[in-house]
Amino acid sequence: MPIPPLYYIRHGETDWNAEYRYQGQKDIPLNVKGEGQARRNGRVLAEILPDPSHTNLFCSPMTRTRQTLALVMEAAGWTDSDWAKSVRFEDKIIEFSFGDWEGWTLEEIKEREPELYWEREKDKWTTCMPNGESYQMLAERVGEWLHSLDKPTVVIAHGGVLRIVRHFLEKVPELEAPMLKTPQDKIYYWDGHEASWI
């Protein structure tokens, strides 16, 4: 079945994003830049989706996505609407786990666990981080959620999840999907047939 239109907003920047520190399932709040990105995306969303009442609204339950949701809704002027109150907090779109590497920078990983780092560089799709997930594992839970959508959907979630969404929608090969860009200051829009950034 084709996937209906999707408006995907990645959470705004956190200090760990700015430090290139693996975040995963650690609950890190937005920084000031991230708050501005969320507001920008809220204003744009209101322009391209003037009537959201016929769409689903999903959000990852993590702090940074909840904060982004609140700021997006405020900037769009939808905070008091019945639609905004019907948000579904979905565990299947929580960011994937970096396991023992959460809180580490890439340089720290290279220094502390060089063999596993290079093994993962060769194949990020199937290689798990220590006590964490692989993109293949993430694709199983995200794919189940994505293919259950039955009408246009707004979702606020994470970079790793967006890579998997793009893998399914744009038919991006498995070994290329983990390298896809996931900007925090744009909305990824799938119109049912093609993708664009707004």
From TrEMBL:
Q: Which SUPFAM superfamilies match?
A: Phosphoglycerate mutase-like
Q: InterPro entries from the xrefs?
A: His_Pase_superF_clade-1, His_PPase_superfam, PGM_Phosphatase
Q: Which Pfam families match?
A: His_Phos_1
- List the active site: 11 (tele-phosphohistidine intermediate), 95 (proton donor/acceptor)
List of residues binding substrate: 10-17, 64
One Gene Ontology molecular-function label: phosphatase activity
Any Gene Ontology CC annotation: cytoplasm
Protein name (Swiss-Prot/TrEMBL): Probable phosphoglycerate mutase
Mind giving the lineage of the organism this protein is from? Bacteria, Pseudomonadati, Pseudomonadota, Alphaproteobacteria, Hyphomicrobiales
